[in-house]
Amino acid sequence: MRNMSLDEAVDFLLDRVEGPIRIGTPLGLGKPNPFLNRLYERMRPDSSRGLEFYTALSLDPPRVKGLLAENFFGPFAERQFGPNYPRLSYVNDVLKNKLPDHIRVYEFFVQAGLYKNNPRAQADYVSLNYTHVVANLVERGVNCIAQLVARGPDGRLSLSCNPDLTLDLVDQSAAKGRTLVKIAVVHEGLPFLGGPAAVPADYFDLILEGPEHAQELFAIPRMPFEVSDHLIGLHASQLPVDDGTLQIGIGALAEALSYSLILRHERNALYRQLVGRLPSNPMGPPISHEPFRAGLYGMSEMVMDSFMHLRKAGILTREVQNKKSPHPRYLHGGFFLGSKPFYAWLKGLSEKDRRGISMTRISKINDLYDEDEAAVRAQRKNARFFNSTMQVSLLGEALSDTLQDGRVISGVGGQYNFVAMSRELPDAYSTLLLRSTWHDGKRRRSNIVMHGGHVT
Prior knowledge:
The protein has helices at 6-16, 33-43, 67-81, 89-95, 119-124, 133-139, 166-175, 227-236, 252-266, 268-275, 305-312, 340-347, 351-355, 362-365, 373-379, 415-424; strands spanning 21-24, 51-55, 103-107, 144-151, 157-158, 181-186, 198-199, 206-208, 244-248, 296-303, 331-336, 357-359, 383-388, 391-393, 398-399, 429-433, 437-439, 444-446, 448-449. The protein is of the alpha/beta class. The chain is globular and about 65 Å long.
């Protein structure tokens, strides 16, 4: 079914599901904001029927206060997010402490710091490893999903930016005989990515497209690096070895790492001069300063701008191939999120390069469990997993998501999975990137602490 209005689509969902609406919607980019907003606005005044959102990373553009700040920020916001970006209505009410009692928002990963001082959001945060989310959704009785998709020339749909949890949720719900109403919203700006992300049109119960359902894709602003970020990236760039596997987490430190990897590959003499000035660490893992001749294979829960730059630089070139895949892959990912140029790059890839990217279920990315586990282990040779952390204790405990007073800043996500995987693979190493200090507005404080508090 297609070409319904927003209100007709909401009516469709309310008629198909009995009792409370427990809706799953993707982490990050794949949320159909106009549909979710209309659903929320329709159910907000009616306390006779519950509404529960199950999601993660509900992206919210920066908010400013005051006429001067608005006049300064407004033109940038319009260029970056579009003139009428549809903010999520439930996020607005969570931030204003106006969420009705019959509506709950459960997130397993949140926009960094967005809910730091919000008691309701803190209480409804669900601490889960990425690979455990689907089982939790099934247990909690999620009965519908809604997400953005891309349409292919042959009529098929692609889960594009978010096959990460959808594929497993649909399979596990069906296996348990659970009702799951599936709603897709076609977005013209999303690239059609095949492989596991491609599904037939009848995969969904309702397909929406048209001007009323259109929205700007949320694009992350590209921020400048601090000198300390570049030095951290320079240190870390010595760890990947040629003919290896690379996973990169989210944030500026990961981008600084990719910058130094490109420097190592393209301007090797200068790179060697720079790393020659760094202190050595004889206790650390093996290091390399060579350019990448065989290349690296990307395997990361999040695909972002860094992988685009590495591919353009001729680094992301090592390919692997599964028995069921007709095409070799240079990159496997669970979800993608990045800048406008990154989305344009994905959209404009050649057929060969597009086939080299496999967006798939997170259970295939963040774990080694597979029907052909031996092949997966062989593919992930010389693996280097890079993620960021906020603080580290003197005992080596990493605090990556929660402050010592218990307030959640972001979430565990998949960090645990990659630390654990590094212990399962014989030639793999997990590296946590850390800024040694932070500034509280008055003085500089250390991120090396005596006690761990809430340890990730």
